[in-house]
Amino acid sequence: MKTIKFLAIVLLFSIKGFSQNSEKLKLALQKGLIMIDSAKGEQDFQNAANYFERIAAAEQKQWLPAYYTAFSGLHSALVGKQSMEIKDAVYDKALTFIEKADALSPDNSEVYALKGYIVFMKMSLAPQARAMTMIPKATGIISKSIALNPENPRAQLMLGQTTFYTPEAFGGGKLKAKPLLEAAKEKFDKETSTGLNPSWGKSRCLALLQQSN
Amino acid sequence: MKQFIFLLTLFFCQQIAIAQTRISGKVTLTNGQQVAGANISIANTYDGNSTDTLGHFSFVTSEQGRQLLKFSAIGHKPDSLWIDLKGKTLSLQLKLKEMVNDLNQVTISAGTLETGDYKKGAVLSSLDIATTAGAVADIVAALQTLPGTAQAFGENGLFVRGGSGAETQTYFDGMIVKSPFGSQLPDIASRTRFSTFLFKGTTFSSGGYSAQYGQALSAALLMETKDMPEKSSTELSLLSVGLSATKTIKLKKSALILGGNYYNLQPVYSIVKQNIIWNKAPIDAQANIQYKLQPTKNGIFKVFGQFNRTQAALTTGPEQMAVTNNNNNYFFNSTYQDYLNNDWKVQAGISYSRSNEIGGIQENDYSRFDELTQGRFSINRYLNGRSLIRTGAEVYFSSREDRYNTLSRNFDNHMQAAFTEGEFYIGDNLVARAGARLEHSSYLADWNIAPRLSLGLKAGKRGQVSLAYGTFYQNPDDAYMIQSKDLAYEKADHYLLNYQFLNEGITFRAEAYYKQYSSLTKYDFAGYAGNYGVNNYNNLDNSGSGYSKGIDLFFRDKKTIPAGDYWISYSFVDSKRDFRNYPALATPPFAARHTLNVVYKQYIPYLKSEIGTTYSFSSGRTFYNPNKTQFLSDKTKSFHNLSLNVSYLTSVFKQFAVLYASATNLPGFKNIYGYNYSADGSSRQAITPASKRNFFVGLIITIGDNTFNR
Q1: CA distances from B481 to B54, B473, B538, B582 (A)
Q2: Which domain holds residue B68?
Q3: CA separation for the pair B496, B475 (Å, rounded)
Q4: Is the pLDDT of residue A43 over 60?
Q5: Would you call A95 helix, strand, or coil by DSSP?
Q6: Which residue in chain B is spatially nearest to A143 when comparing CA positions?
Q7: To bridge B579 with a disulfide, which of A180, B23, B332, B520 should be the other Cys (CB 3.0-4.6 Å)?
Q8: Does residue B2 lie in a domain region?
Q9: Which pLDDT tens digit goes with each residue over B365-397?
Q10: Do B55 and B121 fall into the same domain?
Q11: Is A91 helix (H, G, I), strand (E, B) or coil?
Q12: Do residues B93 and B182 share a domain?
């Protein structure tokens, strides 16, 4: 009897596909989020982007892998020292993936918040040529993100961040950004654990607040 | 029993162990250079890894059997290969090829300078045009700082490589614009009718252009209007010359834009000393409306309508002629373009323009009426990679009437045109374009067929060489056709060779050209025909010919000086032609031998300002002297101009505003464009700019929006 039970258990373990697909995805995403949290430089973020891209390719109906591919790509260019051309290509790839995420999860405040971030960073590569068209585009996307979920701390952070980096002459600056960042901080404080959903941004928010004092 | 269970467990463990395969290796480019950050994965699984800084990768997978291994890296073409997973370690050497993108794609650059915000390698953006000192935000004036162009010197138009202003054709979203400039007043050049800010890009082609464009012997100016605006806004401009306003209303999938301006130069001309006597300083009133709709993801439908009324009166010339000019211009243009699927793109357009000019020269009245209706349709079929075939057809109905006191004459012309062209990208380093254009004119009762050929070849990582050859036909000027039906098309053959180097903020271009003109219109006329009013030409025929050869050099650096931008453009033109009433081959006045432009702009963040300066030089122009036996053997002295402009970003009533000031010819050079001789040739009057210096001040306010929106 014990033997049969034992054999049965061993057999069960050797059958492929034992774990549920959603469990597999959940574990994989968790592992990826740890990669992002511990990422220190351009290479780490690129590795994370590649990791999420592999998941996104295998899970064509899930928005989170595409979202995090875009997020990691964005950060690899943010912290990296690549040439302007390569950064442009990295941002373009991130845009492709956030648009995939948008198609899979339409009217998602998080997706719009991240997209606004990427558009703004792409603009910053060539401000003289791009500011006029891309700043309004980025602020439009961020406004939509806030409209979709006014309590989203990341949407509010994006508003504060883009204002922080927009020159005063163009209606931005640290003074204008401060109340917006404080509103973002409040929303971060209110936010409860979101599991695998996006939860980044609090440390960025605090860092910008410190600089605007 | 225990032993059996142990063996069984071992057996199952081995099964699990057999199911894992280690895959490792290196990713390099075709030249052996390692690729860091590349992504290796097994299709339809999560398994895979990234390469390290040395290009090495390693990972373990429990997949078995035949699997597709994919690998890619940013900036490179993704690739894949089939592998067999049997539990044995796999060691792979993977090679990636560089991806061809807009920036490193080989293009046909001969004769083409693209400007605009969206084209990589673009020469001028719309902001560049607005901030080029001396241009006062006029597209054509800004283009005169680019290689291949000459100063206007009192004549409307864009003069390219020894060609007259009429040889440059202007296109608005692919449709010909009959009168892109304001009225021609005697020896005074007008601005373009269209605001710089309507356009997202301009392609200035100084030769060898595509079979899509005809009726231009020298150059094609292709202006493309902006697509959907980003948001609603209102803009008000208070200028030293008048007022201007634009209102943009953005709806979900469409937008409506209303604009208008009223300019009256009387106040400015009473302050700034004028070289001519204005009986009525120019008044310019304009209203325009635009509608844009995005019916599908990639489709766009545009409608543009504009009405423009100008009035002016002056006294000019050695005989002190009193000249009046009133012009009403209507322009309507609608285009539609969409992608049917990935392979097909369609473009259609219709346009109507009508111009009514009434004027007087001394006691004589004259008027000119012009009407043009056109329709155009074209299809692009995309082939492998970026190759494509395009074909299209156009129809034109034009009418023209001249009146002089009680006399009148008119003519109508129906034209049909068709073109076919293919652009073939062979590998990543070569592109070839070949096409032909067919035209027919009912009035001339004549056909023409024009071949066009060009080639682009990569030269090194950042450079390319380009060649172009083409035949270009153009109807003789309306002023000639209205007097004679027995004329034929004028013809030009272009041969171009171009080298271009583009690298992050640095642009260098060198282009050599040879143009052969034939079948140019000739006539009998005593003296030298002015470009104003109504003239009578006798014995018109197409026995004229000519040539134009030279070299253009262009260097731009947006990188070296922080927040600074400068370019130097030099053109050399050796041109002679026997046309109009020339007795022999001679260098025409509009073909100055040397032209040099140096443009510099600097953005100063802590002053919230941008300053710009332009220095222009042109060697002397030939002019007609009735006292000399050799035609056009005299030359004026050289031309110099130094202009300055400043833009200051500020806010007015908490709304974003730009304060703009510009001055042309600041040092006050005494420039002479030519001379007008009295009828008996005994006295002459120098043709000078309308005023020695020109000043302009403007305040542009964007209401209801604190992001810079143009």
Answers
A1: 72, 15, 12, 19
A2: 20-98
A3: 23
A4: yes
A5: helix
A6: B231
A7: B520
A8: no
A9: 999 999 999 999 999 999 987 899 999 999 999
A10: no
A11: helix
A12: no
Is residue B327 within 8 Å of residue B287, measured between CB atoms?
Answer: no
Contacts by B281-285, CB closer than 8 A, 24 or more apart = B281/B312, B282/B310, B282/B311, B282/B312, B283/B310, B283/B311, B283/B312, B284/B182, B284/B242, B284/B308, B284/B309, B284/B310, B285/B260, B285/B261, B285/B309, B285/B310
- d(CA B422, CA B380) in angstroms, rounded, equals 9
CATH of the domain at B118: 2.40.170.20
pLDDT of res. A13:
47
Q: Alpha-carbon distance A32 to A44, whole Å?
A: 11
Select the more confidently predicted residue: B679 or B622. Answer: B622
Q: How far apart are CA A27 and CA B566, in angstroms?
A: 55
Q: Does any domain span residue B5?
A: no
Pairwise CA distance, residues B596 & B615, whole Å:
8
pLDDT tens-digit readout, B225-257:
988 887 788 989 899 989 999 999 989 889 999
Q: What gap in Å lies between CA B704 and CA B710, rounded to an integer? A: 13
pTM beyond cutoff 0.90: no
Q: With H, G, I as helix, E, B as strand and everything else as coil, classify residue B492.
A: strand
Distance from CA of A134 to the nearest CA of B (A): 9
B48 vs A89: CB contact, 8 Å cut-off? Answer: no
Query: B231–A133: do the CB atoms touch at under 8 Å?
Result: no
**Same domain for B126 and B70:** no
B-chain residue closest to A45, CA distance: B37
Is B328 exposed, middle or buried (CB count within 10 Å of its CB: 0-12, 13-18, 19+)? middle
Given B49, B66, B98, which residue is the final one in a domain? Answer: B98
| B227 and B138 both lie in a single domain | yes
- Give the count of beta carbons closer than 10 Å to the beta carbon of residue B226: 21
B583 plus B490 within the same structural domain: yes
Rounded Cα gap, residues B238 and B657, in angstroms: 11
Residues 550-569 of B with CB under 8 A from A: 558, 563, 565
- Which of these, B705, B184, B433, lies nearest to A136 by C-alpha position? B705
Ranking A32-36, A51-55, B4-8 by mean pLDDT, the lowest is B4-8
Domain termination residue (choose one: B46, B63, B98): B98
| pLDDT-wise least confident of A143-147, B334-338, B384-388 | B384-388
Q: What are the backbone angles phi and psi of residue A203, rounded to the nearest 5°? A: -65, -35
Which residues of chain A approach chain B closer than 8 Å at the C-beta?
3, 6-7, 10-11, 13-14, 24, 28, 43, 46-47, 50-51, 53-55, 57-58, 76, 83-86, 89-90, 93, 128-133, 135-137, 139-140, 166-171
Q: Read off the CATH number of the domain in which B78 is found.
A: 2.60.40.1120
One domain, residues B316 and B413: yes
State the complex-level ipTM: 0.86
Give the number of other Cβ atoms within 10 Å of residue B604's Cβ: 13
Residue B560 included in any domain: yes
Q: Distance of CA B438 to CAs B13, B449, B505, Å?
A: 78, 4, 40
Condensed to tens digits (0 to 9), the pLDDT of residues B544-561 reads 999 999 999 999 998 899
Same domain, B90 and B116: no
The answer to whether B335 and B173 have CB atoms below 8 angstroms apart is: yes
Q: How many structural domains compose chain B?
A: 2
pLDDT in tens, B440-479: 999 999 999 999 999 999 898 888 899 999 999 999 999 9
Size of interface A-B (CB pairs under 8 A): 105
**In this predicted structure, what is the pLDDT of residue B10?**
57
Residues B158 and B51 in one domain: no
pLDDT of residue B654: 74
Residue B387 near residue B367 (C-beta atoms within 8 A): no
Residue A17 confidence (pLDDT)? 44
Q: What is the C-alpha separation between B135 and B143, in angstroms, rounded? A: 9
Q: Cβ contacts (< 8 Å) between A85 and chain B: which residues?
A: 103, 504
Residue B11 lies in a domain: no
